[in-house]
Specification:
Strand order of the largest sheet: 1-2-3
Largest sheet: 3 strands, parallel
Structural class: alpha/beta
Helix content: 40-55%
Radius of gyration: 32 Å
Amino acid sequence: MSGSPRYRFAPSPTGFFHVGGARTALFNWALARSTGGTFVLRIEDTDEARNRPEWTQGIIDSLAWIGITADDPHFEGPLFQSAFAEAHLAAAQRLFESGHAYYCDMTPDEIQQRAEAEGVTGYAGWSRDRGLGPAAGSVLRFRVPEGITVVRDQVRGDVSFDNDTIEDFVLVRGNGTPVFMLANVVDDMEMGITNVVRAEEHLPNTPKQQMIWEALGHEPPVWAHVPVLVNEQRKKLSKRRDKVALEQYRDEGILADAMVNYLMTLGWTMPGAEEAGTEIFPWPEMEAAFRLEDVNLSPAFFDTKKLVSFNGEYIRRLSVPELVEACDPWLPAEWDRARFAEIAPHIQQRLNTLADAPGVVDFLFTDDPEIDEASWAKTMTTEYAKPLLADAIDAYESADWNHETLKSTLEDVMARYELKLGKAQAPVRVAVTGRTVGPPLFEALEVMGRDEALRRMRAALALLDGTDG
């Protein structure tokens, strides 16, 4: 085992990949890479009733999406907790033989009855000195020592726990299976983990885990507990209540680089961000600058609006070929990609997610525009809509078909009506796109082509005339 630090990320494959887990993984990844260490991916797969192979693959795919990949020399795994089952039980046996653990055959009902009779809360070590051995239904409990356990935390400093408040906890269940806490510690030992960086919700378990480490004769890892993510009500993000699946944001058109950048800001601020006036930074700079000592103690608000804003910034930084490639999965298969590439640079400023792209340009790929009734009512019922549209058709029949000329031609038309460009172009926009908002009109007309644009304008004029055209 080399002397370089070993970090680990240890998710359970019981559902979609949580954004909080993604943030923790990125913190570990940044530390492993910046220190020349190793990032170990361990899949905690011992909950057979809830685990699914597709969830495991989902974790691997999600990590790869945010840049944590197996082809990187700093990456090790995935390793599986189930492969270390024998080591878990062997450690339990050593704890029993050394006197750090003992067997207890009291049932939960018996424990409750005795606690009520003696006026105590929970289990009070009643089997400590009974000298019991392993037996069907008996649990193995850790003998919590007297005194204080101090957890030295890179984020929170020294955190002290009075051992009197910690009851002798179970290591092995009555059915002979180890509990998560024991398995987690033994896995870290077996994998040579030197640094444990995880969410603060795990902090209450840390003194128990530290006791196990020490009882088995090992130096505990360096602990670090980062703030949890909360929603706008400042409640911890919940799978049941909030949108937390990383895959969902990916499928809705969030760019991986934007997600990575945003997650890194949750609980940590890039040095120099205030002076730079931005929180947008490339990954190599964030990786090099990240320090656990700079992580904030307060819960971090996962603001979906801010994430989308980040994403818009990243979309606008793409080259046109990159934008076209990025949007491709969201475009209907039958759409002409060459035509989309023509309009793409003109919609880039209007996109906040990649999934927005089809709805912005769909009028270019249909036989007829889908008319938005509100847009039609607002625009085409004005007194100038019909004559202006007729004049625009006449002017556009002979105009050079490029966006500069199309704009100047309409400006000449609108001068007759004493209108500003915004109002003058509205009837043309509704006629060709079906709505009042969309990409720049004249660039859209150029991409659409003279024949199709004029056909749509004439069809709209026919509707205004009350004829079939």
